Amino acid sequence: MRRFYCHCGHEINFHEHFCKACGRDLAYDPKIGTLWSGELRDSNQFFAHSQGHQKNLLFQTCSHRHHDVGCNWLLIQGDDNCQCIACRTTRVIPDQTHEKNANRWFRLERSKRQLFQTLIDLQLIKANRPVEFSDLQFDFLEDKRSNPNLDLDHVLSGHCDGLITINAAEADESFLHTMKEQMQELYRSLLGHFRHEIGHYFWLKFFNSEEKIQQFREVFGDERQDYAQALQGYYDANNQSHWRSRYITPYASSHPHEDWAETWAHYLHIVDTLQTAQSFGLSIYEPQAHNFDHWFNEWRRVSQVMNALNRSMGLAEPYPFRVSEMVEGKLRFIDETIARYAKEHN
Ligand SMILES: [Zn+2]
Ligand SMILES: [Zn+2]
Ligand SMILES: [Zn+2]
Question: H or E segment at 118?
Fold first, then answer.
């Protein structure tokens, strides 16, 4: 994540609606990746106070700004949709008459916007050409565990032909924590779910020819093996001893598609965190440099520092991973695949 500053000079963050120092309203412009400070006029007009000699600019805000979702994004000029490019991809939301669901929806959308920001930065999504990913939709569903009135026992997060399902309860810290313990995971986060599932979505976009699929198989293995059987085998075996040298997480060992999505999510974790480190002067890596070896070495250094800082605070390590040589090769493949896709679509 980049750093942003209000017109008054105060540092502001990506999710904020107003500056805590001067009270100016804030709104994020996904097209140019800027958090503007300015003032809201009427209900959906935003007047940005621009720096230097430029004229002040007028935008429309997302209609979810004055809403439980509290979206702080702007509409792209000329777009006749009333919701921003992130909000409009949500198809089903958890029942808003149920007390906890307003906060769940808020957290879900906040994570989705952060995901979109990274995808726009990587040039995988064009903020000014949203029609190109109009096949992407999200359902935020509940099951019995979070809503006893429902018949459904388990909603699993997943992806199918552009439709991403997320269990709304994953927005609760307590649920995340319980699941993390139950599944013996080292890391679990709501943002991580979004990053994983969008990996399945982009797999379909990237590997659309026999030649490209063959390249995928050389790195991740043959994805034609039966998916349900592989997953069942993984859960039955509960054998977590041999994954470390080949996979980023135990779950990645269940099937080549899951390996891809897990490693892809990991790549996005690194992209966002390293950008933050760079913007705070903790890393010298320039995000535009596209030099994988340098990028990865910087990440090793930064993640070490991050873990050490947390240990000093008596907290768990935020980066409990060891990236083997094989996983490094997979990350490199993802890096090259993204670069190629971005080039082909520009
Ligand atoms: Zn300010
Ligand atoms: Zn929005
Ligand atoms: Zn998956």
Answer: helix 101-121
